[in-house]
Amino acid sequence: MEMKKKFAEKLKYFDYALFIPFLILAFIGVVMVYSASSINLSYLTGSTMQYFIRQLIYVVMGIGITILFAQLNPRWWRSTGLLIGGWFFFMGLLIIAKFFNSAINGANGWINLKIISIQPSEFCKLYLVMFLANLFSNYNKNGGNILIRKLKMGKIFVKEWLLIAMVLTMLVMILLAPDMGGFAISFAIVIVMYLAYVNLKYWKSLLIIVSGIATIGVGAYFLQFTTFLDGTKIGYMIQRFRAVFEPFKYENSIGKQLVNSLYAISNGGILGRGIGESIQKRGYLPEPYTDFIISITAEELGAIGATVVICLLAWVILRIYLIGIRSKSTYAMFFCYGVGTFFAVETFFNIGGAIGFLPITGVTLPFISYGGSSMIVLTIALGMVMNISANQKRGTEVAVFGE
């Protein structure tokens, strides 16, 4: 009877407004991964189920992870030992990926474990959210002065410059992979959480973010006309911007992926060609089940299907931010802002690359694209936010996470 009562209480405080959209997105993702990958797999191996089975396993794991982290006692998230040890662990993974593993698509961002490959930069995004949420909430506890010389973390005092150096070193290692998409998302997390810390008005924070994006865009536009960096890694990134500004001019070279993505979206029209009927997935778009899954979704399910996916993702992101806004705990607020930014920027980068608004960065579409590392990290983050939401409903948020 006692167990039944506890189970009923957990169900009462469970955040279905986050969990159900996640389930729908994950289901759509499994279907679209199968549709986007099956044809090319049949050409290569004669089997069509490989990525479907793997993605289904990732989704089942993700559901379990979400429920688990939504129920766990969250106090350990702020453990000083976990945060400091986590930095050494993830830095070690980034170093192994960079120097001891072969490059994939020009980047040393993966560790091949034979059974599964993991991408350390994916886990670093969530780690940075945890680290910075703890850091900024402790700053507030110590009077809110960003210039204090030492900061109390748990039972010890750590010099401020060391904590800042830890964050910057991790960002540099992600950049050196090079993983531009992972770096941009991680950097955005740092910026948004810092803006939340300094407690600017929303319109001022938005103005700073928009101004920063506009400055980068203008710089990229003029940078595309330079030629002295051609042949370097920076030159390769500049070429991606050229493809954004004039894709059809380079449709047989650097603009080929974007042009085919635009063809896929155009082919879908309003209602789509139907599941399995995509043309562009048949060798025209590389890895259509990851970077360009929104393009295949638009081609097969039409503008309506793609809009449903985007609206569900927007709902999840806005819900996470809303939980942060309602929070009475500074730590929980920072954490939700960080996770919301993580999800939002990743979605923006994937869709922006597919429609030609941004360079193609290889960033996955949350819960839709194929990938184990991405699914695990996203569902851990989602479960942790649902944990915060449950404690808000119980009225125990401050007692659990601190003020």
UniProtKB/TrEMBL annotation:
Entry's localization field: Membrane
Chain ranges passing through the membrane: 16-39, 51-70, 82-104, 116-136, 157-177, 183-200, 205-223, 301-322, 334-361, 367-386
InterPro entries, A to Z: FtsW/RodA
Pfam families with a match to the protein in the record: FTSW_RODA_SPOVE (PF01098)
Gene Ontology molecular function terms on file: lipid-linked peptidoglycan transporter activity; peptidoglycan glycosyltransferase activity
Main location: membrane
Keywords: Cell cycle, Cell division, Cell shape, Glycosyltransferase, Membrane, Peptidoglycan synthesis, Transferase, Transmembrane, Transmembrane helix
Keyword Glycosyltransferase part of the UniProt annotation: yes
Catalytic activity entry: [GlcNAc-(1->4)-Mur2Ac(oyl-L-Ala-gamma-D-Glu-L-Lys-D-Ala-D-Ala)](n)-di-trans,octa-cis-undecaprenyl diphosphate + beta-D-GlcNAc-(1->4)-Mur2Ac(oyl-L-Ala-gamma-D-Glu-L-Lys-D-Ala-D-Ala)-di-trans,octa-cis-undecaprenyl diphosphate = [GlcNAc-(1->4)-Mur2Ac(oyl-L-Ala-gamma-D-Glu-L-Lys-D-Ala-D-Ala)](n+1)-di-trans,octa-cis-undecaprenyl diphosphate + di-trans,octa-cis-undecaprenyl diphosphate + H(+)
GO cellular component, one term: cell division site
First and last residue of the signal peptide: none
GO biological process, one term: peptidoglycan biosynthetic process
Topology in membrane: Multi-pass membrane protein
EC number in record: 2.4.99.28
Function: Peptidoglycan polymerase that is essential for cell division.
Membership in a protein family: Belongs to the SEDS family. FtsW subfamily.
PANTHER family (UniProt xref): CELL CYCLE PROTEIN, PEPTIDOGLYCAN GLYCOSYLTRANSFERASE FTSW-RELATED
The protein, known as: Probable peptidoglycan glycosyltransferase FtsW
Lineage: Bacteria, Bacillati, Bacillota, Bacilli, Lactobacillales
